[in-house]
Amino acid sequence: MKFRSKSRLPLSSHSRPPHAMGRKVRIKSAHDVAIMRRAGLIVGEALQRLQAMVVPGATTADLDAEAVAILKSYGAKASFLGYGGFPASICASVNDQVVHGIPNRKKFQPGDIIGIDMGAYLDGFHADAALTVPVLPCPQATLDLLSVTEASLMQGIAQARVGNHVGDISHAIQSYVERLGYSVVEELVGHGVGHDLHEDPQVPNFGSPGDGPRLRAGMTLAIEPMINQGTAEVQVLPDKWTVVTLDGRLSAHFEHTIVITNGDPEVLTLPPPKETNHTHTTP
Hints:
The structure is a single chain. With 283 residues, this protein is α+β, with helices and mostly antiparallel strands. Strands 1, 8, 9, 10, 15 and 16 form a six-stranded antiparallel beta sheet that branches. Strands 2, 3, 5 and 6 form a four-stranded antiparallel beta sheet that branches. Strands 4-13-12 form a three-stranded antiparallel beta sheet, with no helix packed on it. It is globular, with a radius of gyration of 17 Å. 24% of the residues lie in helices and 23% in strands. Helix 1 packs antiparallel against helix 2 (60-73) and helix 3 runs antiparallel to helix 4 (166-178).
């Protein structure tokens, strides 16, 4: 879940909660990061399992129910449920829906793409990640959009190093996708994450190198490109949550929570190795 850029008009009253920004950037301790790493593993495993459920005939409501069960098995809570009034545990956005889609019972069809965004709250900390999954078979142009969007996320993460600026992350994402003919949504941006789901700094997917706050070890960021096939312009549906492309063309979304270290950035929301994946049951 992301919030709007300060430089753009608000999409809706829910796009950026009024309490979400304006605070000092919080540097996380090694203890804080250890907890976020655990929360991130839960998110990573959950997204891996939800991805496997994206087949013809399944629904976003099915994904939401499974996410709830996975979070419960680990003693974690859904970061999104009730946040600003959001009515589900995951955001599930289909085809031209950019983000903040509300799970429902509409069945997936071959050629659809399903954006799954979820957060886990564990022991006082959040981790947040997203991916976009095709319902196969899909046209190659659709698969290309997903591949480019995921690659742009990795381009941005590579710039998340001590001494760089937020703008270096932003520029890496924007320059990568635009030279391949795609557009960057500017109304919604990434963010700091940790104690709160949304913390400073904002992390746009557009910008110039050297702009924005300087990156320091211990900063935890949710980097999340939202990339469109056509126009960058978007609008909000009457449900006040679901953001869609203005031209009706496809949009993809990938996200990881990362921590900036004195070396390479660490991605906290990767899934665990498959052989270690298992479901914990509560007593």
